[in-house]
Design a protein that fits this description.
InterPro entries: Beta-barrel_TonB, Beta-barrel_TonB_sf, CarboxyPept-like_regulatory, Plug_dom, Plug_dom_sf, TonB-dep_rcpt-like. It contains 5 helices and 53 strands. It is mainly β and 900 residues long. The strands form 12 sheets. The chain has a 22-stranded antiparallel beta barrel.
Length: 900
């Protein structure tokens, strides 16, 4: 580390020493109340600060002569005040009037300088804490669904969000858009396919989230192919602040949150704290008898120095949330259908599978399916910033994390019979059409009714422990010339991660009801043999199907220059990164464990890990380059453009290990090329952005998991390597057309297509009637088709009213039609999710207040589908049933927020 610092010092040793002027002051509203978090910026430079709880700010500047100070805060008109910078300390008193726009907000992500969103040459969206609270956002999808160019699905309901960015192909999760807290990713980004939102949840300690899209997002920190999503924590300051929030909702939800922050010790200690957390109990958005619960605690301790600060962040989470996958729907309308009891079937998760157990060659297996998606673990992060003087600044971040994530997936309609079937049809599907002496009963002993339908289901338990050590260090030097100011940054990013991916599976037979019971089934076959097809609801004791160990080490170096000219901002940057990754695949085999007379082989034989492994290690290097420019046309309008070449390393789990040290195909970066141009406009009543973009992605590697049925279950079935192209445009606006009343929203068009498509079968077997042979390669069949699971049009429309006492909103998230598969055989209709909400704030003395509010998610209770069956090889559109994942139904939330 000392050698690195000396190298950077030598690199910039030719620079001169400039005089500095201290600028300080206070920001208040027109009633005299201090404004916390106001952005103060010296126009034409990167010098600035944000105001503390008392509205105070202070920073140093290198410019001289007559200058302009810009002060902005969301919901207030931006103010520009003239100052004369002469080396003597300057103190100003600022009063802001209500009004203003979000483009004046300072961006903190994917930049090394202090600048507003309006002055950044790329696309940026942000949401503040107040908006998150009023939204009652209970998933990552809730939060980012309103961002232009983003398709967000609640992958399993309220957990494991799938995020697609600007028409880029993805198997889901957040491959191309890492989730960060305070500038560093949560756990092992790029190691496996686990969605980042399972490791941490938003609470009252978050002051906002920023999503920076475009090429510059690849340069800093973890780097990103398409965008960085960064949650920014509150840190304590001069005044104490406390928040208690209570949220209740239908279906048994109760959640309480808190935040407290302030100064530690005496008035001159310069040490501050912030603590936040929540405790939740919930029957789930769909109540099927498996309630979930959890808690999270986060905190930070900040020490301010004369020239910098050190902040220690930490988090601990132990949270369970049920995971919801697809179910059979009406084949024509694709709406939910009625079950055996005449009631609408919303899901097929069954509480009866909780704690199912059976013997394996390695001992007893007991299903944790009742826990759903269960995450337990922590991270600790240190963040050091220091001004060395003479326009030198250093930043350093270090984080260690350790999590265990268990995905308990109840995959309804996944087996041999994937649609509701009568008893006779079910037996015929298994080859027992001539069966006699049929005994079909529910677990309680009641016989099935004559018209009762049954269905196969699959249970998948995925155990994924992961540890991660990450660090970033950078040095920034400001060079202020007569015509241009350079802000040169050199930095390094290091991360070392390791994890496991262990899978156990079993299949069950259940009734087709909204709260299905398990079914026992035995009979005499045509040969006179007694057959037990389902015992205690089990049809297959599949056992262990995967034992995988993954490692990843990444080392990156980056160099950037953010330049300021009279009317121009120009950013250039370069990054080079090496990734070493390994995958150990444990061999599995089946063994006869049960010898009961009549049991089918699928019930007698159980899979287990043999202890043998095959292992391979790979190493590859990628590089990124970005050029961006913004031109200030006038005080209200800016034009910008950027071009970049980036990369994404294929997930370690995609390494196809043939034998020790040998892999199939190449392991190399997926390269992405982006070009974007746009406009940003803002005045006191209206702000808007427009962007047109073009992206190409080369050598995208993805793994499709398929249901092979039988004793195999769901495994990695097909590896695809694709090239894609997208031409798109995004527009966003915020218009205050009357006092306290505004109309805002966005619209996205993305024309995307596959330009190459190669598919390799990873495992032989029969899937949906298709015989797959390992090693078979299909090339080019889907070229020219649209990407699956991504519409061509997206829009969000929202109406807001807020007079500081009463607030209300109504919004619509509109998604166009999309294809379920890359072959474009199955088209899913578009849908709209409506939300409304309102609140009333009661003021008390000493700035205390209580807000009582409510919101309703999916007011229209749309039957829209977020996807079809992701584990099917093909899906028919002509059968009586269609397997798909409906969006979540209507839900009402009520909350009380007390701030003191």
């Amino acid at each position: 580390m000392k050698k690195t610092i000396l190298t950077f010092l030598c690199l910039f040793s030719f620079t001169a020493i400039f005089s500095q002027t201290e600028i300080s002051g206070t920001v208040k509203d027109n009633s005299g109340v201090p404004i916390t978090g106001a952005n103060v910026l010296l126009i034409g430079s990167t010098s600035g600060a944000t105001s503390d709880f008392d509205g105070n700010f202070s920073f140093t500047a290198n410019l001289s002569g007559a200058q302009k100070l810009q002060i902005s805060y969301l919901g207030y008109e931006t103010k520009v005040q003239a100052v004369n910078v002469s080396g003597s300390a300057i103190k100003v008193q600022i009063v802001l009037q209500e009004g203003g726009n979000a483009l004046d907000e300072v961006v903190l992500t994917a930049t090394s300088t202090f600048r507003s969103q309006k002055e950044s040459p790329n696309s940026i969206s942000s949401l503040k804490a107040q908006e998150l609270t009023r939204l009652n956002a209970n998933s990552q999808a809730d939060i980012v669904a309103s961002i232009p160019g983003i398709v967000a699905d609640g992958g399993g309901g309220e957990a494991a969000t799938n995020i697609f960015v600007r028409g880029l192909p993805s198997g889901g999760q957040n491959d191309f858009s890492p989730i960060q807290y305070d500038g560093l990713t949560l756990a092992g980004y790029g190691l496996s396919s686990t969605a980042g939102d399972v490791y941490a949840k938003v609470d009252q300690g978050v002051k906002g989230v920023e999503f920076v899209r475009g090429g510059s997002s690849i340069l800093y920190g973890a780097g990103s192919t398409a965008g960085v999503m960064n949650y920014i924590s509150k840190t304590g300051d001069t005044n104490d602040e406390n928040i208690i929030n209570l949220e209740v909702a239908d279906k048994g939800r109760v959640k309480t949150e808190f935040y407290t922050g302030g100064k530690v010790g005496s008035d001159d200690s310069n040490t501050y704290y912030a603590l936040s957390g929540w405790v939740r109990k919930d029957d789930g958005p769909l109540d099927f008898g498996l309630p979930s619960k959890g808690f999270q605690f986060r905190g930070n301790l900040k020490k301010k120095f004369d020239n910098g600060s050190f902040t220690l962040y930490t988090q601990f989470i132990d949270d369970k949330a049920q995971f919801l996958l697809g179910l059979p729907l009406d084949g024509d309308s694709r709406e939910r259908i009625t079950g055996n009891d005449g009631k609408t079937v919303y899901q097929l998760n069954s509480s009866h599978v909780r704690n199912i157990s059976f013997l394996t060659p390695a001992g007893e297996y007991r299903s944790p399916i009742g826990d759903g998606v269960h995450t337990k673990g922590f991270y600790v992060q240190g963040d050091f910033n220091y001004d060395l003087g003479n326009d030198w600044k250093i930043k350093s971040k270090v984080k260690v994390s350790d999590y265990v994530n268990d995905f308990g997936l109840y995959v309804a309609a996944n087996g041999t019979v994937n649609a509701p079937a009568s008893l006779s049809d079910y037996l015929a599907k298994y080859g027992y059409a001539g069966a006699t002496n049929i005994n079909a009963s529910y677990m309680g002993g009641t016989a099935l009714g004559a018209n009762d339908r049954i269905i196969d289901n699959l249970n998948v338990d995925r155990n994924r422990p992961i540890t991660d050590l990450t660090g970033e260090f950078s040095v920034t030097k400001k060079l202020a010339g007569d015509k241009v100011e350079h802000n040169i940054t050199a930095g390094t990013y290091l991360t070392s991660s390791e994890g496991e991916d262990n899978n156990w599976q079993f299949s069950t037979l259940s009734a087709f009801n909204n709260a299905p019971q398990l079914v026992n089934l035995s009979f005499t076959d045509a040969g006179g043999n007694n057959v037990i097809l389902s015992q205690n609801g089990l049809t297959r004791r599949i056992g262990q199907t995967a034992a995988t160990f993954l490692t990843q080490d990444r080392t990156a170096f980056y160099f950037t220059d953010e330049m300021i000219l009279d009317k121009w901002r120009i950013d250039v940057g370069f990054r080079i990164e090496n990734q070493k990754a390994s995958r150990e695949i444990g061999s599995t085999a089946t063994k006869q464990v049960y010898t009961d007379a009549g049991l089918t082989p699928a019930l007698q034989n159980v899979g287990y890990a043999t202890g043998a492994y095959r292992r391979a290690e790979v190493s590859t290097t990628g590089f990124a380059a970005s050029l961006a420019a913004l031109y200030k046309i006038n005080d209200k309008l800016n034009a910008y453009a950027n071009a970049s070449k980036g990369y994404f390393f294929p997930l370690a789990r995609s390494i196809n290990v043939i034998s020790n040290g040998v892999i199939a195909g190449d392991y190399k970066p997926e390269n992405i090329y982006q070009v974007e141009t746009g406009l940003k406009y803002a005045n006191s009543k209206f702000s808007g952005t427009f962007a047109g973009y073009y992206t190409t992605l080369v050598d995208r590697v993805a793994i499709q998991r398929l249901n092979y049925g039988g004793s195999i279950g769901t495994v990695d079935g097909i590896k695809t390597v694709q090239n894609t192209r997208t031409i798109g445009m995004e527009a966003s606006w915020d218009w205050e057309f009357a006092d306290n009343l505004s109309f805002n929203g966005n619209f996205t068009y993305q024309g995307h297509e596959l330009t190459s498509d190669e598919r390799t079968v990873l495992q032989s077997g029969t899937v949906d009637g298709n015989v797959l042979v390992e090693g078979t390669v299909t090339n080019g069949a889907n070229v020219g088709k649209q990407l699956r699971r991504q519409p061509t049009t997206l829009s969000t429309l929202r109406l807001d009213y807020d007079n500081k006492k009463f607030d209300a909103f109504a919004s619509a998230n509109i998604r166009g039609a999309q294809f379920n598969d890359d072959a474009n055989l199955v088209e899913l209709d578009g849908f709209t999710v409506l939300r409304i909400g309102a609140g009333y704030t009661i003021g008390f003395e000493d700035s205390k207040n209580l807000r009582l509010g409510f919101s309703i998610y999916n007011l229209g209770d749309s039957q829209g589908l977020s996807e079809g069956d992701p584990r099917a090889f093909t899906q028919s559109t002509t059968t009586d049933y269609f397997v798909g994942r409906p969006i979540l139904p209507r839900r009402a939330f009520f909350n009380a927020t007390f701030t003191f």
